[in-house]
Amino acid sequence: MNLRIEPIGLVLAVIYAFACWGARKLSLDQFYLPAGIRVAALLLCPPRLWPYLFLGEYAYFAQMRYPMVEKYGLAWVVLGSASLMPAVAFVVRLHRRMMATTTETWLLSIAAASALVVTVLNIALSELLWPIPPDMPALTGVARYVVGDFIGILTVAPLALLWATRHSEPDWAAMFLKPTSMALGLMTVLGISAALLPADSMTTKTSLQVLMALPAIALTCLLGWRGAAISVPVLNLIIGLTTPKPYPSSFDPSAFTTQLIMAITGIALLVLGSRISHYYHHYKIRDDGEKNAIKLARSSHVTSEMGLRERALHLRKIGEGMDISLNEVVSWLKLHGHHEIAGGLLDTAVVHSRQFRAQASMVYPTALDHLGLYVALQAGGVREAWDLTHRVSRPRLQGDPCQLSIGLQLAAYRAMTDAVSLLLESESGQIEVRARCGRFGRYQGIVVTVALLDATCALSEATMTMAVERLAGRALAYGGVVQCRRNRVRMALLEMPPIASHDAAHSVSVEYVKTTGRGSSQALT
Q1: Which of the chain's termini has less CB crowding within 10 Å, N or C?
Q2: 132 Cβ partners below 8 Å, 6+ apart?
Q3: Order of strands across the sheet that contains 481-485
């Protein structure tokens, strides 16, 4: 059969057998921890090691049930011991496709199916093979054993699954420790207080045990499925360990009622936690995608600007070469007595040279690299182009743009020129341009307003739509926002720290616009 014995498998079998033996010492039929050990082992171990788990299960049952052969018969001891682990393994195997989903609700299905299958096998074999059928009615036994196995699985299996997924999110441990310690400490205090109460204070004891669900709910809401995976087992464990157990098969009706309530609570918490984690992962994926998109957009804008910068520098060199050549021609004409022709040529050359440099500066404002945004707006070709329209008033510029990055200044420059061009094309009347640089909290940024000078003249819907379509890309790349209100287009661009999310950037930029758009300076320093 080419069967190879692995030493790690034999060690696993021994560990499993001792774990079941120790868990049985702490268990009751209504709180059966070996059922949780069985499911947890099958979830943690790959299928190639399952035969060794079978071996450990048979060793555990051998030492426990061998003394029962004379009382219950050899057939029951063999079949009852040999059939449980393969049945649970089959249940786990059927859920393998469900385990690939992002939520962990499949664990509840495994727990319910395993508890039901094991209980039905135990009850059926005892009814068929015991020399004297059990005294307990079959339905009562099914209810008690199903609940006991289900609670045992919910006590151990979530912890095993939490351990198996501990490396899936490297940063979860930092935010996990403090709230978990506080919640578990409060649950432990309530559990010990309930256990120390006298036997005649059942109402108070039950109330304290039910109150333990509150820290579990809080931890689930804070940490999602991970919070439920630690709080539900601890909740069941405290109640199970504080239940009186004079012997393993003893039954406590009041504790059973509390355990039923906690089992339902555990189901609700695990479902709630899995849904919270599911939506958190979707939000994180979307947020990471938005951050990457913004990063790529910003990188694309900077790259395109660097290309335009090289082109503008090349045009500047061409212009300087043309000026040198024209000066040489003018000097030659003067030398040979053609002073009138030289003067006319010089005047024409000066005009065209100024126009050429203005057009080159509109390709890329080289003055912005050294002197800042405001100098580029007032001394560049864009200012001359605005003056020629006789519709753009002198810009009102406040703050120090040199405190901002070159990329942000370039984005503000392009957004401002595009907004002015749009209003010149689509609207009539005079246009006013304002810009304010400053700090809002821990963020630096700039607010740009391009508005019609006549406050009673509102922008058309088509203009507002085009403004958002043309300007939003640059604004969003710098955590900004574009707003069109009445007669104005207002934009905010911020220097966002690397840890700031897109939602935080958007909310800060909106608040930045609201605060700085009234013309006051109390929010800017």
Answers
A1: N
A2: none
A3: 396-398, 431-440, 443-452, 488-495, 481-485
3-state secondary structure of 444: strand
The per-residue pLDDT for 181 is: 87
d(CA 83, CA 80): 6
Q: At residue 498, what are phi and psi to the nearest 5 degrees?
A: -60, -30
Angle at 217 between CA 155 and CA 26, to 5 degrees: 20
Query: H or E element: which one contains 397?
Result: strand 396-398
Closest CA to 445 of 511, 370, 380, 518: 511
pLDDT at site 523: 35
pLDDT of residue 518: 43
Residue among 39, 30, 32, 38 nearest 58 (CA): 38
Q: How many CA atoms lie within 13 A of 52 on its CB side?
A: 20
Structure-token pair, residue 227: 């919070």
List per-block mean pLDDT (blocks of 10 residues) for the chain, which spans 525 residues: 71 93 85 92 90 92 87 87 92 82 77 92 87 77 86 91 77 74 89 82 82 88 86 87 65 74 86 83 77 72 75 75 80 80 79 72 78 84 84 90 87 88 89 89 86 88 89 82 89 70 51 48 34
Alpha-helical regions (H) of 83-212: 84-94, 106-129, 138-164, 172-196, 202-211
The neighbouring-strand residues paired with 431 are 392, 452
Cβ contacts of residue 470 below 8 Å, gap of 6+?
418, 422
**What is 454-467 written as a DSSP string?**
-TTSPPPHHHHHHH
Long-range contacts of 15-20 (CB under 8 A, 24+ apart): 15/56, 16/41, 16/52, 16/53, 16/56, 16/57, 16/60, 17/56, 17/57, 17/59, 17/60, 20/56, 20/57, 20/60
Token pair, residue 177, equals 């420790």
Q: Which long-range contacts (CB under 8 A, 24 or more apart) does 3-8 make?
A: 6/49, 6/52, 8/49
